[in-house]
Amino acid sequence: MPLLSACGGSDSGSREGTTSGKDAKKILPAFVASNVVTPDIPSKNGSSQGFTAKLDGADLKTSVAKKLGKGGKVTIMSPFWGSPPKGNNPYYTAMNDLIGVDVQWQNQDGNTYDQKLGAILASSKIPDVVVIPGWNMMGKIPSAISGKFADLGPYLSGDKVKEYPNLAAIPSGAWQRSIFGGKLMGLPMPAPTAANIVPLYRQDIFDKEGYEVPRSADEFMALCKDITNARAKVWACGDMKWTAMNSFGVRGGGEKPLWWDMEDGKLINRLETPEYLEAIEWTRKLFAAGVVHPDFKLGKSQTVDPAPKFAAGEFLIWDNNIVHWYGQQASQATQNPDFKIWGMDIWNHDGGDPTLYAANPAGIFAFVNKKASESVIRDVLAVANVTAAPYGTKEWMMTNYGVEGTHYTIKDGVPVKNDKGNNEVLNAYVMVASPAPTIAHPDLPDYTKAMVEWEQRMGAFTKKSSFWGLQITEPSRYTNLANDFEQLENDIIRGHKKISDMQQAVSDWKSKGGDKLRDWYKKLLDENGTAAS
Q1: DSSP labels for 251-320?
Q2: Which one, of 311, 324, 287, lies nearest residue 198 by Cα?
Q3: Which end of the chain, N or C, is less surrounded by CB atoms within 10 Å?
Q4: Where does this chain mainly localize (predicted)?
Q5: pLDDT at 87 over 60
């Protein structure tokens, strides 16, 4: 059985469990790598692929030979950050013409999207397509996915995907993550599986002051004390919790969900491991030593962007997602040519090689309404086949930059958006489906190379946990079991609570359902196996 029969459920309602092994192989689309463009730096060890060469509009390749859309209308609800543009703007019009589909956007505020999702999924008026990010898959939403959305397997499983070559080139891990309730339901946004939290640092200041990049927890603490001079308004770092989780080898690293894995024949949760407590305690010591910028101590970093103070040299080390490595460098380099941000390799706390855990291979999904007709589903797949076009193609350029001359110009091989481009070309079509993970910054090729190579080096120390890549729908009775742990972590590292409070919380978690959830996960593993082969 692909699903836990003990958990019940039916085709029309929610289905708990997961799907892997032989059952998944019957469902997954065939993988056919794209040969339209060749990356300058191929993917390795779960990294993104990298493109460093300059772009030339005349040299862009074509990855969609003919319009697959049949002219139908498709409504898409998606999270949006910022002010959505008007519906009939030149970007939307050009994209719809390229695809052959009349896409009507129902953009919703990304900051309150979970509330809107819940209301829409509980109603009878669900749009043709609903985009759901992984971080919004809480509470009843995962079970609603199985009941409210269409099975795309009849259109994409096996060789059927070859009708949509850009979808066929999406890595299989991302599709595995798109299986809900035993059916292929999501159109994925693939992600690199290598670590994505980088300790960014001001290399220009390090070089000037003679600071050396640390290689252990003790070296890091000593460096932080050396850097910090509160009177001069200079602190060493921001909140280093995510890097602490990585350097102490905590399962799941900087990722937030509770993490289960097998150890010595037993199924354990990250909460129960000594590494988890050690990582929190070490981060607490950084705060207690006064080396963390006060904005992080006060929790202001949640509401006030720390970037200007990092740029001003008020703190020199910043735990951040790898995508911000380029962003921070690009935003400052024009004003200060000496400005240089680099990324520290993650070290094991004792100075050896780190133990890292693979991130999930997809994190955002687009779902098609279960009531959609075949023609609507085909039109949605036509949209996705364009938005999943690889870097260096006309379709990628249109999806990400809009119309040349209207939304952007190419200056010295680099596409540059104008005001119209910045207002219209964002947050929309890229949410439907994406190509294999890619880093491409032709304006800063050295940084593209550095980012991909950082992922590749960290990828060499990365292993897959027992449940890696599986889309798991837990029984609803457990959905709120772990809600308070992240807040408790943050309270402990800021000195408001103690490690003993965490130990008590873990004990309570086990008795309130954690141990029963362990049994549920163990049965899941016994019956389904893993996807991490």
Answers
A1: TTTT--S--EEEETTEEEEGGGSHHHHHHHHHHHHHHHTT-B-HHHHTTGGGTS-SHHHHHTTSEEEEEE
A2: 324
A3: C
A4: other
A5: yes
| CA–CA dist 375, 458 (Å, integer) | 44
Q: How far apart are CA 396 and CA 331, in angstroms?
A: 23
Across the range 326-354, mean pLDDT stands at: 93
What does the alpha-carbon distance between residue 422 and residue 401 come to, in Å, rounded to a whole number?
9
Would you call 130 helix, strand, or coil by DSSP? Answer: strand
3-state helix, strand, coil split of the chain in percent (to 5) is 40, 20, 40
Q: Can you give the pLDDT at residue 10?
A: 29
Which of 120-129, 302-311, 390-399, 425-434 shows the lowest mean pLDDT across its residues? 302-311
CA dihedral of residues 22, 25, 27, 28 (deg, nearest 10): 160
Query: What is the C-alpha to C-alpha distance for residues 305 and 287, in angstroms, rounded to an integer?
Result: 19
Alpha-carbon span 63 to 269, nearest angstrom: 44
**Structure tokens given for 172:** 């299989």
Do 4 and 16 contact (CB within 8 A), yes or no?
A: yes
How many contiguous H segments (helices) and E segments (strands) does the chain have?
21, 19
207-233 pLDDT, tens per residue? Answer: 999 999 999 999 999 999 999 999 999
Question: Tokens 């729908």, residue?
Answer: 473
Residue type, 326: Y
Taking only the tens place, the pLDDT of each residue in 388-398 is: 999 999 999 99
Burial status of residue 398 (CB atoms within 10 A of its CB: 0-12, 13-18, 19 or more):
buried
Selection from 440, 270, 254 nearest residue 262 by Cα? 270
Cα 64 from chain centroid? 26
Asked if residue 14 has pLDDT above 90, the reply is no
**The predicted structure's pLDDT at residue 12:** 34
